[in-house]
Specification:
CATH superfamily of the largest domain: Vaccinia Virus protein VP39
Helix content: 25-40%
Number of domains: 2
Strand order of the largest sheet: 3-2-1-4-5-7-6
Strand content: 5-15%
Bound molecules: S-adenosylmethionine
Number of helices: 11
Largest sheet: 7 strands, mixed
Distance between the termini: 31 Å
CATH class of the largest domain: Alpha Beta
Order of helices and strands: HEHEHHEEHEHEEHHHHH
Oligomer: single chain
Radius of gyration: 19 Å
Number of strands: 7
């Protein structure tokens, strides 16, 4: 892996009213890129921002960057979900909009931020992208829309793409897409579930406007995911990518894939290895349980975090 393109520094603490789904190391990456990498030749895309933690990291980094500044385009539909309603009843009940509260948070954060409230499926973008932060692609449709909106606007040789859910097994299409496009991207860093890519050359239009995974067979998708696993540099990344194939089997209705890959995971990684990550342990247990019940794993999602905890101390986000 090439050495880091920027100096990694700890991000400032979040204000107490900004809960985040990102771990500290993931926020450090955003802060450090804004502070040490951006030169102001394009925008930062911040999608989605939830309660503004990613925006906070970018703004605090940019204000310490002597080389240039960027406009931040922040995308969020700002609809209260059930977990958020429980943790933050002040934001409203499930399905309420928290756009007013989000605007208030962003005005306190400051910086050059344009907030796009609404479904990103209906959004437009016509600029040039210096940094593309994607933490919004829990649905395949959103993934396709974000690719169409932003991937063709990168600056080859300079733009960074931060795939926040790269090592999160429920979104198999993210690592599969990035692996398919390995000739166009170089991995420059990783943190927890994030993987950071340098765009090295312009992408062909047909992988931007269309979903190139559509034409692939399950065996081809599994081969892409196995390549991503083999490029992993930590047991966490390798185990998460093994579980990604398990989840892909369940989501695509291929029980043979799920069954064989669950058995392989259990044979390869004994409990002492799995216990190096509470998230791996929890996810494996849930996937095994859902498989035995014949349920769809799509519902498994990440949960908001109250504090600045690390992987070692975090409650499993399930
Ligand atoms: C995982 S959270 C982002 C966490 C955030 N980056 C942080 O720092 O805590 C994903 C966000 O994307 C938003 N989102 C998901 N689908 C969306 C869509 N189609 N349009 C707009 N926002 C969407 C959700 O409302 C949610 O706040």
């Amino acid at each position: 892996m090439p050495s880091r393109l920027y100096a990694l520094e700890p991000a400032p603490d979040l204000p107490p009213d900004i809960m985040s789904m990102m771990l500290a190391a993931e926020r450090d990456v955003l802060f450090s890129i804004a502070k040490n990498y951006c030169i102001g030749v394009g925008d930062i895309i911040d999608a989605g921002l939830f309660l503004g933690a990613s925006t906070h990291c970018f703004v605090r980094g940019l204000e310490q960057n002597p080389r240039g500044t960027c406009r931040i385009h922040a995308y969020e539909r700002a609809i209260v979900g059930r977990p958020l309603a429980k943790l933050r009843p002040d934001l409203g009940r499930p399905k309420d909009s928290y756009s007013d509260q989000l605007r208030a948070i962003l005005s306190r954060i400051g910086g050059n931020v344009e907030l796009h409230i609404g479904d990103i499926l209906d959004a437009d973008y016509s600029g040039t992208v210096e940094v593309l932060f994607l933490d919004i692609m829990k649905q395949r449709e959103t993934f396709r829309r974000c690719n169409a909106l932003f991937m063709g606007k990168l600056i080859p040789g300079h733009s960074l793409v931060i795939q926040q859910d790269h090592y999160w097994p429920m979104n198999w299409y993210i690592p599969a897409y990035m692996q398919l496009l390995e000739d166009y991207f170089t991995i420059v860093d990783r943190a927890e579930t994030s993987c950071i890519f340098l765009n090295t050359k312009a992408l062909p239009v047909d992988v931007v406007d269309r979903d190139p995974l559509d034409g692939l067979s399950p065996a081809q998708i599994v081969a892409l995911l196995d390549c991503t696993r083999d490029r992993g540099t930590t047991p966490f990344q390798v185990m998460m990518m093994e579980l990604c194939v398990v989840a892909y089997g369940m989501q695509s209705g291929n029980p043979a894939i799920t069954e064989s890959r669950l058995a392989e995971f259990e044979a390869k990684f004994d409990p002492s290895v799995r216990q190096t990550s509470p998230r791996v342990v929890a996810l494996h247990r849930r996937l095994r349980g859902l498989y035995q019940q014949g349920s769809d794993p799509t519902a498994l999602s990440r949960a908001p975090r109250q504090t600045q905890e690390s992987e070692a101390t975090a409650a499993p986000p399930l």
